[in-house]
């Protein structure tokens, strides 16, 4: 005898959930990487943020970066998908998407969102990696490699 199927609402309610964020790798004509210093955490980060309900990751990256920097941005190719297990106070896995944000020629266009950001800077790669937390450093260096190789890369913190 076969087991009855669950109705879709019940079945979907049993599935695990994750947190999702999306950001952009943006550089300047000299090849320096753009990082932001949020005022709500001690470390620097990529420009980007958390995906809202019914929002695609690439749309989130565009919205968040435009809001944070005050500059309209184009979202290019997917560079990295990074899966991280639950950690510390985060009770669910996190999936981070990094898209290519291209080269921003005129840094004077940037108007940082003062309510959220303390600083915005184009930094040499060797400096940038010292300002990021461990898994974000890995994500940044992997995004650089993916852009160079012209292919997306999957990361896992397992």
TrEMBL record:
Keywords: Hydrolase, Magnesium. It holds the Pfam family NUDIX. Residues 16-145 form the Nudix hydrolase domain. Transmembrane segments: none annotated. It comes from the Bacteria. Its cofactor is Mg(2+). Signal peptide: none annotated. InterPro entries: Nudix_hydrolase, NUDIX_hydrolase-like_dom_sf, NUDIX_hydrolase_CS, NUDIX_hydrolase_dom. Belongs to the Nudix hydrolase family. PANTHER family: GDP-MANNOSE MANNOSYL HYDROLASE. This is NUDIX domain-containing protein. It comes from Streptosporangium amethystogenes subsp. fukuiense. The lineage of its organism: Bacteria, Bacillati, Actinomycetota, Actinomycetes, Streptosporangiales.
